[in-house]
Amino acid sequence: DRCFIWTPQPHAEGAPSLALQCAPAQAIRLAEYCNEAGMVSFCAVAAPLNGVEDRAVLLWLPKEADLEPLVKQLAGDANVGNCMRRAFAVEPTRHCTLSDAMGRLAALLDEKGSSCAVRVQVFPRYLEQKVISDLADAQRNLVCVSFSHIASLFYADGAYQVGVAQREQLIPEGVCGMDILDAGRPKMNSSICRAQLKLSEALARSGWAEEIAAKPPHRAVDVGAAPGGWSFCLADPSAWGCAE
């Protein structure tokens, strides 16, 4: 298997970073997708954590990059949204201890003011209750539903990163699958089978979808133990005719 090695590099102060929590089997593919789409300066798949099923994909963005369009592009892709659990907006600064990270997160919340209503998300999840309890003890304005900002604490590759982002930056309006309030909702309910997801990804990443649509008609035969996924992707009246 291929892997992405993380190499520390300098960043301008305050440059945004994005950390993605995803299904373990899709981590490398998600990193490849981000690289191929030219979304990031570089990215890495973090080392697995003991007892944690999900994996972390770390994205370093150009200092002039706007976070919201990037998250919307990721969440708007059906294949990406199917494997991505949560997105964390974090500072590039890496903290060696949880205490240091919590101190920085508290400072960021203080900068937002007492009226800032915050939803907290933490990776890995087993740290979440401690982070929430510590912030609550310090009289932070923590809410679960009507929040204006999302406070993130993320641990990967032996270090912690923190950040505070506006709700709209991490939960783009009109994009399904990224709202942390609906994390338990099944995604891609319209998918017929895994073949459909794989073919949709291949068409999107290769650019063949546009080429195929430009040169109709074509013919395909969908056969197998559970046909249907290929037909669903290819049965565009303007491009394909499919028979199962």
TrEMBL record:
Record's InterPro entries?
Answer: RNA_MeTrfase_FtsJ_dom, SAM-dependent_MTases_sf
Q: Which Gene3D superfamilies match?
A: Vaccinia Virus protein VP39
Q: What's an example of a GO molecular-function annotation for this chain?
A: methyltransferase activity
What biological-process GO terms show up in the record? methylation
Q: Which residues form the Ribosomal RNA methyltransferase FtsJ domain?
A: 193-236
Protein name, per record:
Ribosomal RNA methyltransferase FtsJ domain-containing protein
Which species is listed as the source? Polarella glacialis
Q: What is the lineage of its organism?
A: Eukaryota, Sar, Alveolata, Dinophyceae, Suessiales
